[in-house]
Predict the structure.
Amino acid sequence: MMKFMIVEESIYNIFKKVGKHLVRHGYNTSHSGNISIRSGGKIIIKRRAAMLGDLQLEDLVVSNLKEEDSSSLIASTELGVHRAIYLETDAMAVIHAHNPYCVALSLIEDEITCIDAEGFALYKKIPIIDVEIPAGAYYTSIEVPKMLKNYPFVVVRGHGIFAKGMTLEDALQYVTGAEQSAYIRYLTLMTGKPLKRDFSKEKDFSIW
Amino acid sequence: MKGLNNKILEVDLNHDKFNEVPVPEEILLDYIGGRGLGVKLLSDKLPVNLNPLDPKNLLIFATGPFGGTIVPTNGRFSLVTKSPLTNGIFYSNSGGSFGVVMKRCGYDGILIQGALKEPGYLLIEGGKDIAIKEASRLWGCDTEKTLEEIKKIEGNRINSLMIGPAGENLIKIAAIMNDAARAFGRGGVGAVMGSKNLKAIVVKGGDTKIDIDNRDLLKKYVKVAQDKIKVVPITRSSLPKFGTSALVNVINILGMFPINNFQRGFDERATQVSGEEINEKLTQEHEGCYACPIRCGRLTKAGDMKGKGPEFESVWALGPNLGIYDLITVTQANYLCNKYGIDTISCGGSIACAMELQERRLLKDSSLQFGNSSILKELVKKIALKEDIGAQISEGSRLLSKSYNSEEVAMQVKGLELPAYDPRGAIGHALGYATSNRGGCHLTGYMAALEIFAAPKKIDRFTMAGKPDLLVLKQNQKAIEDSLVICAFAGWALGLDYYARFMKAITGIDYDVVKLLEIGERIYNLERIFNIREGLSKKDDILPPRFISEPLKEGVSKGHIVPLEKMLEQYYYVRGWDNNGFPEPELLEKLGIKHI
């Protein structure tokens, strides 16, 4: 049985960089959102109510991967969702953010088809799920991992996005990439004009 | 299971018997095919503690549900046996078309046991004939000559696996060559074939159709995958243009390109044997395996010789690791390894070990000096034929160094010589070497993807955090890729999310990434259990002491060593193994693996 767990400086630096990016670019408000990685058979996750854009080393909490422990007293409210994602998918890092355009489109669409070339090539579509009580861990911990088995991200309608990755940076790219695709789609919808080239019509992503 | 023939061919060489044996569906569901199927069959059927060169050892070749379909890069197939070099389980994988033709002949795999009284080759002609044919006059021939002679008898439309003189002479670093220029290179598998007096295996013909659950859906998924392969730079241009040797300059600049038996990690002269140089000076034609859009292979001409390669690992092992930077000599030595049927990595690694022993004045042969390119080609021949010093080198670096009481000079893990990445330059990769079930191997859990190539994103190559977890994921991923079977290079563009969709379309079973990873975990643990029963343990999850205690002295990896002990403790924990590296009973129960 492994007895120790140290949060290395290098890990803190990655959390700080990613947290700052999410807040600075409007994916989260001052205290919303949470990020974590899987390391040494444990979860390292942001502390509850810590400012994502200004994380300190003590804002990183080490939690058990397989079962709840006392760290849940101070860990992010969404620890249960992160844990479920790690246990049920291949995620090595998880980000939960409140991407405004993804959230906006989730309120009017059932899935967000990527119509921009980047999103079309990398993501194809952004799935949306309905959860009875979107915020808080219980319901999302049941529904979100199911989708993340086959997609890198999922938007919980009206709430925000959960993205997985091999690393935090990897998950960050999914968060920011999804938002970019949602933003482009939103802008074109706003014009009310037909698309000159609709990538989503060229490939059938309903099968994806 | 759809996508497979659900049967293998069992060949008993002792009695010239051939049996079609159905594979139970539960085995295919749990282990899929390829490496997984081979590992399961070997574990079930091989007696414990058998000498790998005993005729009772098994050679198991197997393809998977992707083989022969339209999935890109499906031309690969796997070999599983017990290795005479490591005395543990050995899985290997090779490309070309043999695996696809074997499947068209109606078999997901061929399991070979026993030994022929006289040299022979096995012929499998789809729908027509299975036979052992006499091959005494081929014994002693190199692989090119052997292929030429077999084609005279069986026609040009064949695919073949064969050994050269190295395999016949049972040298522990002998390869099985695939159509004379590809290889099941590592682990001394050629000696296992030689111990059976089996010169070659030939497949041809066959028209067995693969039952696909939903062809239209598979077509759609494959189209998306092909588009992705076309846009990712590594699969679109780097590999097709420069082949694997594109890595030479990249690894050298990072200060982790092993020079003179891993004594240094950088040398300016390495550019002389780079992918760019090979492309400009040697490449005649590009080529690829069956159903491969990447086409990383190349036909080359070096001086008065022609052949295939050299690949990155070969150009390094026979070049800078020996202090040799003469591209023509290195390439010709590579051709000779192919002709004699020798693993280029272990060949170079064992020669490097001999050169360091000579440098330390332990081995008295003044010609064995780093940088002495004039001896290289002759030395390859001597190794294959077990002549003079070649006989000692042919045993591999572990036994060679042991005979001089200097095991620290052998750059190997579990007896398998290390490949072309100094582990001090990427410590997750180092942990991969130490824990690979087949020994010192970079492919079993390719952490360099993250630590060097930032795929999918860069992680600090010198930090420990998260590495054991990522390595476990990579090892399980590779185990499943080798079982589906698909080329590792497809992974630069695709991944398990694609493969799960392909599997769903082919089999009709609702696969997802997690289900595939569970199978990978099962395979990895069964391999571990096999090794434990054969006497391997935590004591074998090690690295040569050089990497633990001697920092690199120059280049951008300067000052670094591998904190192996700390990482290993975490790795065991993440794997669900106890402190001695034994899988915990509850893990084995979850995976459905019997206790030892």
